[in-house]
Amino acid sequence: MTIYERLAACGSEQYREFQSKLVPNIPKETILGVRTPELRRLARELFGTREAEDFLAALPHRLYEENLLHFFLISMLRDFDACAEAVETFLPFVDCWPVCDQSSPKVFAKNHDKLLPLIRRWLASEHVYTVRFGIRMLMNEFLGEDFSPEYLAWVADVPGEDYYVKMMVAWYFATALAKRYDESVVYIEQRRLAPWTHKKAIQKALESFRVSEAHKEYLKTLR
Question: Is the pTM of this model over 0.85?
Fold first, then answer.
């Protein structure tokens, strides 16, 4: 079967209805209703095959699940340069938050020195989901041992009024408040974020089990 046929065989009308409500900005007819575990299983089966190579070269895709599958395949690449090139080729075609958010290339974790300049470029993009992906990579990879306080400023200074970018900025700061409280709370105290994003970051921090109760009580006073 072709990749499309394999995807269609896994589709569910009920799940399609559910997914279409989560991604209202893309046409419902582009959604088959394939669950993520099935997509990841298919990615594992295809990875390393000529069929997968041809699929990755066939941009743009028409279906939501094809885009998800594309990013899952990219995330499995073991060579950093090849993975980064594939990511940069694909990012302009990302058109919704689930495709942007569900893939995290494993090879990035071992190549932070090469990844950081790419993140800076992604943050400066005019494409919403490229910016969102850059913030998420900064959140996933650089709130641990390789953290630097300047990264908080990079995210705080991301411009724009797009909902999906602002929500990712809020998510980043909520995570930073869990992992790097002392450095990140200053941005909340000084109201460095836009008012909506400021409130959303506090809300998400209050909902997090990783933020201490003492810190939550203080954050409530900053809303």
Answer: yes
